[in-house]
Design a protein that fits this description.
This protein has 139 residues and is an alpha+beta fold. The chain contains four helices and eight strands; from the N terminus they run ββαββαααββββ. The strands form two sheets. The protein has a five-stranded antiparallel β-sheet with strand order 1-8-3-5-6, with helices on one face. It starts with a strand and ends with a strand. It binds zinc ion.
């Protein structure tokens, strides 16, 4: 018995300043390609103004996520970093929500709830956002 990891890199081109992109299929395809049946999958975005989260992807709730982000992390609220590039709110949203999530893999599939999608959250687009998917398992 040995441990094995499989790394897959993708990118997503976001089109708006705030955006929620469903990346579930990228993650599930990477798990399939890995041929790892039992373990976990890490989904990470190597950026300081974006985040990765797990939740429902339905147009109205997606709009609510963005409304919530703008309320909790208001752009232009006198942040010091805005003196440099006016995106302090995006750094703080990324800091709080987090740049990665880990999901269980069992039987070769990602375990998730019916309404749980894997989401890339853009706070300072449009930009090219890298996504790193690492599947870890016991073979
Ligand atoms: Zn910045």
């Amino acid at each position: 018995m040995s441990c094995r990891t499989y790394l897959k890199k993708h990118f997503v081109d976001t089109k708006n300043r705030f955006e929620v992109v469903r990346i579930t299929k990228l993650v599930e395809d990477a798990v399939k390609e890995s041929e790892i049946r039992e373990g976990h999958v890490l989904v990470f975005t190597p950026h300081a103004t974006a985040a990765v989260a797990v939740n429902e992807y339905e147009p109205r709730i997606v709009e609510d996520y963005i409304t919530w982000i703008k309320r909790v992390f208001p752009p232009g609220a006198g942040w010091r970093h805005d003196e440099i590039d006016s995106n302090a709110y995006a750094h703080i949203a990324s800091l709080v929500i987090g740049q990665s999530r880990v999901l269980p893999v069992s039987g070769g599939y990602v375990i998730r709830g019916t309404w749980q999608e894997i989401l890339l959250l853009e706070f300072d687009g449009p930009r090219r956002r890298d996504i790193v998917i690492q599947v870890c398992g016991v073979q």
